[in-house]
Amino acid sequence: DFFIPRENYPLWLIAVGGYLVGIGTRLGSGCTSGHGICGIANLSKRSIFATITFMASGMLTVFIIKHVAELV
Question: In this model, does residue 3 exceed pLDDT 80?
Fold first, then answer.
């Protein structure tokens, strides 16, 4: 009972989310874990900025979905 998967998400929302992840990966020249683990470990300014951007975007997305669009 600890983990209950969410159901009934709109298909368009899942599709848009996947598309945006793909665009972000292309624009960011790598994935979030690559920048977050390897890039920050190498003290790469680009990776530090990218990781901050990923985190801020994720927080903003959760806020919009939960409080503005009230989809959850």
Answer: no
Residue 72 banded pLDDT, cuts 50, 70, 90: low
Spatial separation of the C-alpha atoms in residues 32 and 53, rounded to whole Å: 10
Give dist(CA 33, CA 26) in Å, integer: 14
Q: How far apart are CA 19 and CA 25, in angstroms?
A: 10
Give me the DSSP letters along 10-53.
-HHHHHHHHHHHHHHHHHTTS-HHIIIIIIHHTT-HHHHHHHHH
Q: Which residue in this structure is represented by tokens 């470990």?
A: 41
| 10-37 tens-digit pLDDT | 889 889 988 988 888 888 787 778 888 8
Closest to 51 in 3D by CA, of 32, 67, 70, 64: 32
